[in-house]
Amino acid sequence: MSRKRGSIMLKKLLYMTGLISTFGLLSKVYYDTNFIKTASVTLLTDKLKKGNNYSILQISDLHNKTFGKNHQRILKEIKKAKTDLIVITGDLIDRKTTKLDSVILLVKEMRKVNPNILYITGNHEWDNPLTSELLLQLKKQHVQVLDDKEVHMQANEGIIHIIGTGRKLAKSEKLIHLLEHANPDNFILLLSHIPNVVKHLSGRPIDLILSGHTHGGQIRFPYVGSVVVPDQGVFPAFDQGIYEWEEGKLLYIDSGAGTTRLPVRFLNQSQISIIHLIGNR
């Protein structure tokens, strides 16, 4: 084989390798962005008796995204989950959302699967002029808006005391009042869209916080993970998953279902989460 022919063959090989790699990369981005998965977390707690378990489906950071026609893909995952409760931890819509039809349709279909739905607002709701209408529509669908409010859920013989925080986060006098008067014998769950709330809650009787907001970095890199997330800057301390933020107190950050700014995910597939609370007393 001549040197010229060998050079041409090498160029063709490099071209095909680049083409295949680019196709693989774009396919991965498309899949991670448009196909939903369900993450599962199991937590033991001595606030519930053995055999006395409770399951929660968490949906966060949808940003008005749809998964298939009439939300078929995400509804399939919700139906499979069969949890006791659904919580939506903010950014159901995006700050640029101008129509609510899509998310209201999703909520209607979710209620057919599980009528027990709690909701707190996120920063994109705080910036969207349609939020008042969204809250009204959610209440019409019997979704309980839990910003600076509380609810007690029965878990057989145990109590799951759920408190929500909204725009004012830990600076809310109502939130502090609710935490100060919470019974520490119950399992105390805080819903906070922004995980940085932990900076303001040291010493408060909280067993678990469910958050979103970070998107898990949205785009992640091999061996590095997320580089930047909102409010935490470069190489964040809390991006996704479970953390012990104070002794015996846990924070779970769901990496979310939708996207914002860049409409892509990479190595960070769109997801919802199931949190299994397992009695261990």
From TrEMBL:
<dbReference type="GO" id="GO:0016020">
    <property type="term" value="C:membrane"/>
</dbReference>
<keyword id="KW-0479">Metal-binding</keyword>
<dbReference type="GO" id="GO:0008758">
    <property type="term" value="F:UDP-2,3-diacylglucosamine hydrolase activity"/>
</dbReference>
<dbReference type="Pfam" id="PF00149">
    <property type="entry name" value="Metallophos"/>
</dbReference>
<dbReference type="InterPro" id="IPR051158">
    <property type="entry name" value="Metallophosphoesterase_sf"/>
</dbReference>
<dbReference type="GO" id="GO:0009245">
    <property type="term" value="P:lipid A biosynthetic process"/>
</dbReference>
<keyword id="KW-0378">Hydrolase</keyword>
<dbReference type="InterPro" id="IPR004843">
    <property type="entry name" value="Calcineurin-like_PHP"/>
</dbReference>
<feature type="domain" description="Calcineurin-like phosphoesterase">
    <location>
        <begin position="55"/>
        <end position="216"/>
    </location>
</feature>
<protein>
    <submittedName>
        <fullName>Metallophosphoesterase</fullName>
    </submittedName>
</protein>
<dbReference type="InterPro" id="IPR029052">
    <property type="entry name" value="Metallo-depent_PP-like"/>
</dbReference>
<dbReference type="GO" id="GO:0046872">
    <property type="term" value="F:metal ion binding"/>
</dbReference>
